[in-house]
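Every protein is a chain of amino acids, and every chain bends into a shape of its own. Below is the pair of lines this work produces for a single protein:
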Amino acid sequence: MLKNIIVCILIIVLFTSCQSKGGQIDSIWENLVHAKNIEQEDNRIAELHQFISKKHISFHIYFIDSKGNTKSIELKQETDTIKTITIEFDIGKDKKLIKKGWIPKEIENCYYLFLE
């Protein structure tokens, strides 16, 4: 009986943890996408970086170029033009959160998340 209770508690904690990670990322993402200037964007990307570092969340960054192609940010060439950014967050076992629609005001901010 005690074993069943412990298992249930662990499942609830894991589920809640994944949900809260997603909710916090949603909130930060909305603020990032709606940043009015470079300074606000810098602050939001720093907030996102701090959160994913603290929670040990891995991610992949993709961009859509002017031709509509989706590419990994790591493969960006100097000739590529970034139209929008998509980030895929790994928020739990087999759980991904995909956030789309960020148009960076400062392209270098895309790379800030890779800093340790």
